[in-house]
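Dear all,

This email documents one entry for the complex benchmark we are building for the journal club exercise. For each entry we list the sequence lines for every component of the assembly. Then comes the predicted three-dimensional structure of the complex as a token string, followed by one or two observations. Please use this as the template for your own entries, and keep the labels exactly as they appear.
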Amino acid sequence: MADDAEHTEGTAEAGNGGRAAARRRAAGRGGAESRRGAGARRPSPLLIAGRVVACTVGLAVFAASGVVWYEVKQLTDGMTTSNVIADTKKDAPKHLDNSVNLLLIGLDSRKNMDGSDLPPQFVQDELHAGHSSDVGGYNTNSLILLHIPANGGKVQAVSIPRDDYVMTYNADGSQLGMAKIKEAYGAAKDKADPGLRAKGLKGADLEKAGRDIGRAATIRTVQKFLDQPIDHIAEVNLMGFYDIAKAVEPIQVCLTHDTRDPAMEGQGSGADFKKGINTLNAAQALSFVRQRHNLDGPDGNSGDFARTHRQQAFISAVVHNLKQKGVIGDLGKLQQLMGVVQKDLVIDNEWNILDFAQQAPALTGGNVEFNTLTFDGFGTRNGQDVNLVTPSKIQKVVKQLFGYADAAAPADAADTSATPAPSTPADTPMPTPTAAKAVTVDVLNASSAAGVTSTAESRALVAMGFKEGRTGPAATRPKTTTVVYGKGAKEAADQIAARYGVTATESASVGADRVVVTLGTGFTGVDADKPAAPAGAPSDPTANLPMQGPGVDAQSDGGIPCVY
Amino acid sequence: MAGQRGRSSDQGARERAAGRPGASVRPLAGGAALPVAAALGLPLAGAAVDELSGPGMGLAFVVGAVLGTAAAAALSSRNGWWWVLAASPLVVLGATAAVELAAHRDDYRGKGLATGAAKWVVHGFPVMAEAAAAALLVIVVRLVRDRRRHRG
């Protein structure tokens, strides 16, 4: 009978539905049982206590889980995600350990996520970025690969110079052709555009699909170029950068000299900074990271490269700023910041906010060192100024930088560039046009420095794509290395000269399609060839790596590294 | 079909309750073995299937947890419902933790364990809610049927 009473009560409440009803029922039932107790069997007090405890624990776990779930959902909802990473991971180079590689993509686009143009006046006045929405296109003007080691330790960040001339790849992994690395995104997007349109995509959907193609192309190109897998990406465009800066301004940065770069039609960043600590608002912050004119540093680090250092210093400064404001580690404040930036920030869909929370402390302890990848020299390709690079050399440097010295060590000092890339010979195209391949290079040695031989140099040049010519001692004893070329070999000679930091000269005494390199008495080897050079592994694996300009250590200068 | 299945399990529960007068006050004794096995076994089996087929919990775990909790609610006595509802969140979390720890013990050390636990909670909550909803649905169906039977 008591059961019957319970049925009616339960049914009536269940009609209201939901867990609340169940809970009320549960609570009500406790009362019913005690009432019932007088006439029927009284449940043992132990059982009642057991039920109360079980229900309390169950409810508490359920409620607590709900709160955590809600918080995390709030943080991630509304975030634009890209699902290309699953695809690009399929043929990524193997991970050597449990470290995480994160690619930061700075997209120089004056368009919104849906493909609409940013308000021209805003672009001009606030972004100082030229009012045309076509300027910049879809260039990935900032590419930074962050390597977070598996077991703590310093986070290594490498900037890839945007004009590095490399083999670019389509989203599906097929070759897109030699180009500046920054162009892979836009080129792949453009190429895929007709196909996407044919599928009936338009407007914001077309833009989103196109950008995903661009992202995949960039990921694949960087993966192949550096021979490193990419686990996660974060992409931010000009507008997003401005919004982030707006959310965290004022931001303090430090410069080693006064500088000005007036904004003009699509060029010039509007920079106007003083030596020492500068406090920037969002628009100034954008100038700070975009300036590349009037930036020729004393260390030969000009324009683009000095700008890269600016970007690195800025990231350090922002992290320092966030940490000081207590944003990192405060879910509420972090949520606020996310709310601001999520409209222009794109992350991959496999990037779990909880995983990131685990990795974030590694990034915030001033525990990041930024470096900029080096290159062989400047060159002209398709009428554009580019950085010539040898992928196998870069890959060795990156491996060492990331602490995989053993994997990169087998090559000996004098020989590094002659060793073909160990794993992906097909994927390491030399930055040499077909014409240059026919060029024969003679190497004559006037240097008596240890480890310098004409054959070793010749091998290094063959590895760059040239034909092996004569080798042997030089008849003359020039102090500096000379590069002399015959008819039709100018382009090749320029590339070779860049390797030695000299200028090539033409001479009638040298045959056609031939270059003669004379290693000067002051020649002690090419710096770029020495990643594995020092005998006895140095304690800091990065200390002797060839890099473009000085590294930027997030820990230096009290968290605000001073740059040129 | 579903109605028939519900009816037969309902009848089974009634018969057990009738045959064993003590069952209504001692839900975990004897007749409770089946619901307990369902409530624990199905989610664990689902979790194991998910773990073997790829990292993390997925659809099999959701199905296992929902079916397991619903079956337990269908098979248990009225007093057992208490335990089914109270235990369901714990079972979901426990099954996730047990299978994840068994599969990737090395990943869950120190900070990794804290992050892992947060992940289990975040992924687990919707499953808990679905499992509890399924159990409630079964309970409502059983109550409605009982009332009809009493009126009839």
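Observations: Chain B touches chain A through 36 residues (CB under 8 Å). The helical segments of chain B are 2-19, 33-53, 59-75, 78-103, 111-151.
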